[in-house]
Amino acid sequence: MSIGYKALVADAESRIRTISAADALTEASAPDVVFVDLRDVRELKREGKIPGAFHCPRGLLEFWIDPESQYHNPIFDEDKRFVFYCNLGWRSALAADIAQKMGLANVCHIDGGFEAWKAAGGAVEEKK
């Protein structure tokens, strides 16, 4: 028997914190919050991103979080709250779950992702 993406996302969401796009809008300028854009670089170029968001392609997340990895990114060492997002909230749910398992204590993801952010009136920064 196999498991599909819907079941994987639902399972991840049972363990992580999910915030609405409206809640994300209120946290966008908080100095102790880092928005992490997990989308592919082509999505960023085509659609833009949340202003000030840090781009971490989903395929690199585990390597950038792990301090023992040669690809470790020190942003994940900061004592911040990490708000993950992707286009619709599926990749970000899986990513937040993995990040918690890897030791990031203060993580969540945006329900509905970047699409929900835009629908809620969130600003979009063009990717250069």
Brief account:
By secondary structure, the protein is an alpha/beta fold.
In what order do the strands lie side by side in the largest sheet? Answer: 1-5-4-2-3
The share of residues in extended strands comes to 5-15%
User: Helix share of residues?
Assistant: 25-40%
Q: Compute the number of helices.
A: 6
How many β-strand runs?
Answer: 5
SS-derived structural category: alpha/beta
Q: Cα-atom Rg, whole angstroms?
A: 14 Å
The shape is globular
**Parts with pLDDT < 50 across at least 5 consecutive residues:** none
Task: Please characterize this protein's 3D structure.
- It is built from six helices and five strands.
- It has 128 residues and is of the alpha/beta class.
- A five-stranded parallel sheet has the order 1-5-4-2-3.
- Strand 4, helix 5 and strand 5 form a beta-alpha-beta unit.
- Helix 2 crosses helix 6.
- The radius of gyration is 14 Å and the shape is globular.
Write the layout of secondary structure elements.
Blueprint (H helix, E strand, L loop, with lengths): L4 H9 L3 E3 L1 H7 L5 E5 L3 H7 L6 E2 L5 H5 L15 E5 L4 H12 L5 E4 L2 H7 L9
Parallel strand pairs: 1-5, 2-3, 2-4, 4-5
Helix pairs in contact: 1-5, 2-6
State the main characteristics:
128 residues; alpha/beta; five-stranded parallel β-sheet; 6 helices; 5 strands; 37% helix; globular
